[in-house]
Specification:
Length: 359
């Protein structure tokens, strides 16, 4: 593989430095201008890294939380198993409260707590080693899942296609390749050419700052557009498929992803363009019946009025509504591409089959 592309698809957005016993993350809020790595040692630093989007993207925050819990477990002083578990649960609840929408966060935390409970009788050093292995497995597993998702995604596009994406679901948001950007990066590795349109993704600009950065560095033909330009680009006939990531997929296929995603899906339906959601099965929440039950994170109005601007761009007193995610109705989704294959409507059945078969 081309060395430059290898660096892009294998980006170390999250790494556990075992020698120093420290969690290291790439601060995504500073990209693309600065590549700065942060060492997280306290629960507050870990909580804030997720809350403030220094680490972001549904799978990535799950991986970060898993390593965080291991790291915090090392600091627990309580001698008894019960005392250890109580303290670990406190840390788990605290980290879990950092962001509500992406189900990967609570999924990874649950996996870590389950592992702790199952191995509670082990001597402390061994228990900690088991927890480290679990976090590393969650990380490695995501790499395998993203690779499989990328392969399945490649089956629905062809060389030369135009693809529109929203927000960032690339290597920075996951572990390698990414989900929505995975087929594009994998296809590029194989010599395919795509023309990608990246929505800038207001208000936090993940498309401008991260997606166009990742794709351009990988040598992909990427064009950055403002969110309100998706319609004209589709009307011009430049888009053959939309690829987006997901933060939580409900049992009926309704999908929460970055605010603005549902608008892209509505436009795609108008222009007859297939709209695909790509994500690992850890993002599917079978306990959530439909989109109405997905908690939507609401963020600080300052992100709309002031952030990224030299001068405030709105009256400081103006009322703002700043939901970070929206729900795309399952009827607008052409397929949900997972590491186990592509689910099609009716999603209530196809998603359930993914878990029934335990493939
Ligand atoms: O607020 P963010 O930047 O964490 O939102 C991220 C997204 O909406 C992604 O599309 C989603 O998490 C999937 S990442 C593979």
């Amino acid at each position: 593989m081309d060395e430059k592309l290898r660096k892009v698809t294998h980006v170390e957005n999250i790494r556990y430095d075992k020698a120093a016993e420290e969690l290291v993350i790439l601060d995504q809020t500073l990209l693309p201008n600065e590549e700065k790595f942060l060492r997280l040692t306290t629960a507050e630093e870990m909580y804030n890294a997720i809350k403030l989007l220094r680490v972001r993207g549904a799978p990535a925050i799950g991986i970060c939380a898993a390593y965080s819990l291991y790291s915090l477990a090392r600091t627990i002083q309580e001698d008894t198993s019960e005392g250890f578990l109580t303290k670990l649960k406190e840390y788990a609840a605290y980290l879990n409260s950092s962001r509500p929408t992406a189900v990967n966060l609570s999924w990874a935390i649950r996996e870590m707590l389950k592992t702790a409970k199952e191995n509670l009788s082990l001597p402390r050093a061994e228990l900690l080693e088991v927890l480290y292995r679990k976090a590393a497995d969650i990380h490695a597993d995501d790499i395998a899942k993203c690779t499989a998702i990328s392969e399945y995604g490649l089956t629905v596009v062809k060389d030369g296609d135009g693809i529109l994406t929203h927000c960032n679901a690339g290597p920075l948001a996951t572990s390698r390749y990414g989900t929505a950007l995975g087929p594009i990066l994998l296809g590029t590795e194989r010599g395919m050419k795509f023309r990608v349109f990246s929505d800038e993704t207001r208000p936090l600009l993940q498309g401008a700052r991260l997606t166009s950065y990742e794709l351009q560095r990988a040598g992909v033909d990427v064009t950055l557009i403002c969110d309100n330009m998706a319609s004209i680009v589709m009307k011009n006939g430049w888009v053959q498929a939309c690829f987006v990531g997901c933060d939580r997929v409900a049992a009926n296929g309704d999908t929460a992803n970055k605010i603005g995603t549902s608008g892209v899906a509505i436009l795609a339906r108008h222009y007859g363009i297939p709209f695909y959601v790509l994500g690992p099965t850890s993002t599917i929440d079978m306990d959530c019946p439909d989109g109405a039950h997905i908690p939507i994170e609401e963020r600080d109005p300052d992100e709309i009025k002031n952030m990224w601007y030299e001068k405030p761009m709105a009256l400081q007193s103006v009322k703002c509504y700043n939901p970070a995610f929206d729900v795309t109705d399952h009827t607008l989704i052409s397929g949900i591409i997972t590491e186990k294959g592509i689910c099609r409507a009716p999603y209530t059945e196809s998603l359930k089959a993914l878990f029934d078969n335990k493939k």
